[in-house]
Amino acid sequence: MTSSSARSRNAPLHDYAGLLSELGAHLNGRRESGASTGLLIVHITNLKRINTTVGYRMGHNASLEFAAQINEMLRETDWMRPLAHDRYAVVLDRLKNPGHMLLAANRIARCTSSININDEVGLQLEVRIGAAMFPEQAQNAESLLRHAELAVETATLRGSIFSIYKAAETQHLTEDWDIEAQIGDGLENNEFELFYQPKIDANTLLPCGAEGLMRWHSPTLGAVSTERFIQIMEGTDHIDAVTSFAMHCAARNMSEWPAIDSELSVAINLSPSVIEQGNCVSRFKQVAAIWGVPLERFTAEVTENGIISAAGAGLDSLQEMRDAGIRVSIDDFGTGNSSLAYFKTIPADELKIDKSFVFGMLESDANHRLVRTIIDLAHGFGLTVVAEGVENAEVVKALQQLGCDVLQGYHFARPMKANDFVDYLTGSANASRRLRAL
Ligand code: C2E
Ligand code: CA
Ligand code: CA
Q1: Which of 313, 328, 232 is nearest to 279 (CA)?
Q2: Rounded to an integer, what distance in angstroms lies between the CA atom of residue 59 and that of residue 125?
Q3: Does the predicted TM-score (pTM) go above 0.90?
Q4: What's the angle, vertex CA 370, arms to CA 369 and CA 374, rounded to 5?
Q5: Is residue 395 in contact with ligand 1, taking CB distance under 6 Å?
Q6: 271 lines ligand 1 (CB under 6 A)
Q7: Which homologous superfamily is 3-165 in?
Q8: CATH architecture of the domain covering 178-437
Q9: pLDDT digits (tens, 9 = 90+) for 190-241
C-alpha cells in the first residue's frame, strides 16, 4: 500500500477543512515551480439507491472498494481524500495539460463496473466527475475545490460523466449558489418586502384590486430580480416561507388600509409546489383569522403551467380554495401548451392574458386576434379577463374595445411599496369623487 492510500484510509469522512489545509499546503509547494495541479471531484450518484436496495453496509463497502481501486491506479505523487460517503477528491500532481484530467477521469469511470463485494455481488456504480486546474482555473485551494464542485454540477446538468470547469459556463451556477446561500438570512433579517401593483377596472379605470409582488433588497447582493430568486426558492423550503410572508403582508396591509376601499382584493402568487401540498386553504384561513380579513379578499394566482403540472391534487386544491371563497386566477395564460377548452374543467374565476401577447397586440394581427379569442372564450366560460403588461393608452383602448374586464401594467402604475399604494388609492378615490360630483 502506498503512503497516500494509507492516508486515505485513515482520513476522517467529511473533512473539508482538513482537505482545504492539505490542498493549500500542496498548492503552495507548487506555486514556485509553476507546476499545475488538477483536482477531480468524483461523485457516486447511485450510492443512495444502492443503500436503500441492498443495504447501507453494502453501499459503504462498495464506496470503499471503489476508492481503493482509484488509489491503485494513481501515481505516487497523486492522492485522494473522502469528502463524504459518496464523494472523493482526487489530486493529480504536476499535470502537463488539462487532457490528463480527462484520461484520469476515464480510468476512474472504468473502475465503476468492477465492484465486487465478498466476491459475490457485482455492483455497478454511476459517477459524475468534475475537474479544475491550478493555477489556470483557480488561485487557491478553496476556489479550486469550488470550481471542481461546479464542474460536477455542470456534468450533471449535461448528463455527461465528466466536465472541466469553465468560468463563463458555470457563472450563473456560482451566482445562484450565492443567492441561495443568502435567502435564508434575508428572510430572517426582513430583507423581503411585498410590493403592490394595481389592477384597474377597464370600464371605470379605477383600481379594483392589486397583485402582491415580492421584492428582495439584499445588503450584499443588492436588488435581486424577483423571477430569479423565486426560481431558486422553488427547489427549496424557502418558497413556503416566502409565500407565508406574502400572505401575512397582504392580510396585514388589507386590515390597515383605511376605509378607502374595504372590498379591494389582493392577489398572492402561488408556486406549483405550494399548490401541490394541498394545504393552501388552511394557510389562507389561518392568516385571514389572525388579521381579521375575510377570505373573499384574497385571490390566488396560479400559472397555467403550474396548474397543468400540479394536475390531480392541484385541481382539488383550487376547488377547495374557491369553495372557501378565495378567488382563483390563471396567470400567464397563453404561454403553456394547453388549449383554452381545457379550462372549462378548471375551477377558476379569472384568467390573466400573458403580457407577451399584450405588448405586441397593436403591431401584430396574430396577437390581436389571439387576445380577442382568449377574451371571447374566457367570457364564454364565465371567467373575468385581466390583461397584464399594459404599457400605453392605445393598448388600453384596444382592450376596452375587445371587452377586457381588468387592466394591469406600467401605463397605470409600477409595483410599489404598501405606503405608496395607500397614497395611490387615496388619489384614485379623490379623483373618482370629483368625477361623480361633475
Ligand atoms: P407575474 O405573476 O406574471 O407578475 C407580473 C410581472 O410583470 C411582475 O414582474 C410585474 O412587475 C411585471 N409587470 C407588470 N406590468 C408590467 C408592464 O406593463 N410591463 C412589463 N414589462 N412588466 C410588467 P416581477 O414583479 O418581476 O415578478 C416576476 C414574477 O415573479 C411574477 O410574474 C411571479 O410569477 C413571480 N412572483 C412575484 N412575487 C411572487 C411571490 O410572492 N410568490 C411567488 N411564488 N411568485 C412570485
Ligand atoms: Ca401573477
Ligand atoms: Ca403574469
Answers
A1: 313
A2: 10
A3: no
A4: 120
A5: no
A6: yes
A7: Reverse transcriptase/Diguanylate cyclase domain (3.30.70.270)
A8: Alpha-Beta Barrel (3.20)
A9: 999 999 999 999 999 999 999 999 999 998 888 999 999 999 898 788 999 9
